[in-house]
Write a structure and sequence with these properties.
The structure holds 2 protein chains of 2 kinds.
Chain A: E1 4-7, E2 10-13, E3 19-25, E4 32-38, E5 44-51, E6 57-58, E7 67-73, E8 76-81, E9 90-97, E10 107-108, E11 112-116
Parallel strand pairs in A: 2-11
Antiparallel strand pairs in A: 1-3, 3-8, 4-5, 4-9, 5-6, 7-8, 9-10, 9-11
Chain B: E1 4-5, E2 10-14, E3 19-25, E4 32-38, E5 45-51, E6 56-58, E7 62-67, E8 72-77, E9 86-93, E10 102-103, E11 107-112
Parallel strand pairs in B: 2-11
Antiparallel strand pairs in B: 1-3, 3-8, 4-5, 4-9, 6-7, 7-8, 9-10, 9-11
Classes of the chains: A mainly beta, B mainly beta.
Chain lengths: ~120, ~110
């Protein structure tokens, strides 16, 4: 089946630093990738949609300058949390889809736990 | 985004019993729905999906029912096992929205041995 990986699986950083999270589709090409964040005991909140070779589309209320997304290839998307603060601590999950225009299933990564001190 | 919510935040069932997890959605334009299972510290795992032109779909031990009239869907798990213990989310999407999924608040399923 389709496998999506994330790296790192967890990260602890100091307030004010930037953190990069990678999302890779291992055995398929993902035209579209999605980034979610999840607070403890809460649901997944869609942050942005990332299409290969174009700018990401952010959901309302998500700061694009705060959460930089790059989708440089069909197998890799990165999320950079810039100038991280404790309130950015969360579980960040990516997903990948093989088609951006139809309702194909999204394959989720295992998530990255970010803790900002 | 669309509002997708659940009636019951926690459900406890005895091993071997059937489980029913419910979900309400608010966007009448949503035409594709998925149930996901999430174990602690992991990403969501696809369980079953259903399109709006159907009202029922069955998988292995799982059945999804869709009632578009009242904007409600449910996940039925037959012969619930301890390994089914997890948080279950429904997600909705619309074809025109390029596969964007909006998730409900989740139901935690506890299976008692």
């Amino acid at each position: 089946g389709a496998v999506v990986s994330q790296h790192p699986s967890w990260v602890i950083c100091k307030s004010g630093t930037s953190v990069k999270i990678e999302c890779r589709s291992l055995d398929f090409q993902a035209t579209t990738m999605f980034w979610y964040r999840q607070f403890p005991k809460q649901s997944l909140m869609l942050m942005a949609t990332s299409n290969e070779g174009s700018k990401a589309t952010y959901e309302q209320g998500v700061e694009k300058d705060k959460f930089l997304i790059n989708h440089a290839s069909l197998t890799l998307s990165t999320l950079t949390v810039t100038s991280a603060h404790p309130e950015d601590s969360s579980f960040y999950i990516c997903s990948a889809s093989t088609s951006g225009g139809t309702t194909d299933t999204q394959y989720f990564g295992p998530g990255t736990r970010l803790t900002v001190l | 985004g669309e509002s997708v919510g659940l009636h019951l935040p926690t459900l406890s069932v005895q091993e071997g019993d059937n489980s029913i997890i419910n979900c309400a959605y608010s966007n009448s334009a949503s035409d594709y729905f998925i149930w996901y299972k999430q174990e602690s510290g992991k990403g969501p795992q696809f369980i079953i999906d259903i399109r709006s032109n159907m009202d029922k779909r069955q998988g292995q031990r799982v059945t999804v029912l869709l009632n578009k009239t009242v904007k409600h869907l449910s996940l039925q798990i037959a012969a619930t096992q301890p390994g089914d213990s997890a948080v279950y989310f429904c997600a909705e999407s619309t074809t025109y929205n390029f596969n964007k999924f909006y998730f409900g608040s989740g139901t935690k399923l506890n299976v008692k041995p």
